[in-house]
């Protein structure tokens, strides 16, 4: 633990370095300026603007446009965060330094590492980085190119065509995300290409909010959506990008006009290369502080850590960012971390004016080795023919998005 003398440097400030400017990193940088104005906060992020994965599916459905899900870092700069537009390419946990792609090296006293995910290229045979130009994943926002490509493919597809999705096994970013994507693509197709079909090939047998999504698909889209679970030969093992073919475990070949392949994932490369991740590809952490077990002084938040019982969601990235910052600041002040509790609310749009949700509260155990949902602390939307409930939840989802992005960037 770094003790209080770090605050007495010649330059007068301890250094909190935040790597990654998404739901975890931007939330951490903003909260740090509020909680600890005496600490110098630097945010490293390669993109000049952040495009959110949440609400990206609504762009595919025609319910949002790209500018509505694109956010700048001006608000953080105005709060006193130094924003460095560069990519962190190496971490020295012993010297507590980070090397940037442009050549600069940044020293830190505590780091909040929120680098997101990497896609496991070739985990599905034939699906390498080049294949994503024909079969987009649209699962890492980046500059928005993948999302735009998938939208263009949907728009160009003939009526009566087939959209196929390859859905990965757990764990991966945003458990209900593929099923919201199915819903939003179906919404677009119902309006513009009503004879089209969606084939969802899943490496799992169950998924988040499954009864609610399947109720919505039947009610809104009839027979347009076919979901094929792993035990009915839904696991995609091989793809042929030029031919538009997805081949499943038992050798069934599916020809698609548009193929959205969401491959298995891991923590981003920088976390793995720094030796923070284990054989699972994710970073083990102390759930009381999100400090990496392999590197004192580095708090790993967002999708890159081993989330345990918690889903990899934007809401939890924001919630755990605040605990990680509070723990890092406490260490700088020579104090123990605060008592942790983590909140998650995950909204999904199944159609226009049709929202569903799940709510959870989580707490770590006494030694921080595990985290569990608090019994009877949450739940999912009720099932049934409840149009007003669905309409209100869609409105609540919009309110959540506006609130959390303001909390991150304003």
Summarize the structure in words.
With 410 residues, the chain is an alpha/beta fold. Strands 5-2-1-9-21 form a five-stranded parallel sheet, with helices on one face. The protein has a four-stranded parallel sheet with strand order 13-12-11-17. Helix 1 (23-35) packs parallel to helix 8 (314-332) and helix 1 (23-35) crosses helix 9 (387-409). The chain has nine helices and 25 strands. The radius of gyration is 21 Å and the shape is globular. The longest helix has 23 residues, at 387-409.
Q: Compute the separation of the termini in Å.
A: 31 Å
How is the biggest beta sheet arranged?
5 strands, parallel
Low-confidence stretches: 1-10
Query: Strand order within the widest sheet?
Result: 5-2-1-9-21
Mean pLDDT: 96
Q: Beta-strand percentage?
A: 25-35%
How much helix is in the residues?
25-40%
Taking all Cα atoms into account, the compactness measure Rg is 21 Å
By oligomeric state, this entry counts as single chain
Overall 3D form: globular
Structural class: alpha/beta
Number of beta strands: 25
Number of helices: 9
């Amino acid at each position: 633990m770094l003790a209080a003398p770090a605050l007495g440097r010649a330059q007068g400030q301890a250094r909190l370095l935040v790597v990654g400017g998404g739901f975890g990193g931007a939330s951490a940088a903003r909260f740090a300026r509020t909680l600890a104005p005496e600490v110098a906060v630097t945010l490293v992020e390669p993109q000049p603007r952040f495009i959110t994965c949440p609400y990206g599916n609504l762009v595919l459905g025609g319910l949002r446009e790209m500018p509505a899900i694109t956010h700048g870092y001006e608000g953080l700069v105005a709060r006193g965060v130094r924003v460095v537009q560069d990519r962190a390419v190496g971490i020295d946990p012993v010297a507590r330094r980070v090397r940037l792609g442009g050549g600069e090296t940044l020293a830190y006293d505590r780091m909040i590492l929120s680098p997101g995910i990497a896609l496991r290229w070739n985990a599905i045979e034939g699906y390498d980085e080049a294949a994503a130009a024909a079969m987009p994943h649209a699962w890492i926002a980046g500059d928005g190119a993948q999302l735009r490509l998938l939208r263009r493919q949907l728009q160009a597809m003939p009526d009566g065509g087939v959209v196929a999705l390859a859905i990965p096994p757990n764990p991966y970013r945003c458990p209900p995300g593929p099923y919201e994507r199915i819903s939003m693509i179906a919404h677009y197709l119902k309006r513009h290409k009503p004879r089209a079909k969606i084939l969802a090939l899943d490496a799992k047998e169950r998924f988040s909010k499954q009864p609610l999504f399947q109720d919505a698909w039947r009610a809104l889209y009839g027979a347009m959506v076919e979901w094929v679970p792993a035990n009915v030969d839904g696991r995609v093992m091989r793809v042929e990008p030029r031919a538009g073919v997805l081949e499943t475990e038992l050798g069934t070949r599916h020809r698609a006009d548009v193929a959205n392949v969401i491959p298995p994932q891991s923590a981003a490369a920088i976390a793995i290369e720094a030796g923070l991740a284990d054989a699972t590809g994710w970073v083990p952490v102390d759930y009381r502080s999100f400090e990496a077990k392999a590197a004192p002084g580095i708090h790993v938040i967002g999708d890159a850590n081993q989330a345990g019982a918690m889903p990899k969601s934007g809401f939890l990235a924001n919630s755990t960012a605040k605990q990680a910052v509070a723990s890092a600041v406490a260490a700088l002040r020579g104090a123990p971390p605060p008592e942790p509790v983590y909140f998650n609310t995950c909204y999904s749009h199944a159609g226009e004016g049709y929202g569903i949700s799940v709510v959870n509260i989580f707490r770590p155990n006494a030694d921080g080795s595990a985290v569990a949902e608090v019994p009877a602390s949450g739940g999912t939307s009720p099932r049934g023919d409840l149009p007003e409930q669905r309409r209100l939840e869609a409105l609540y989802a919009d309110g959540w998005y506006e609130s959390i992005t303001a909390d991150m960037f304003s």
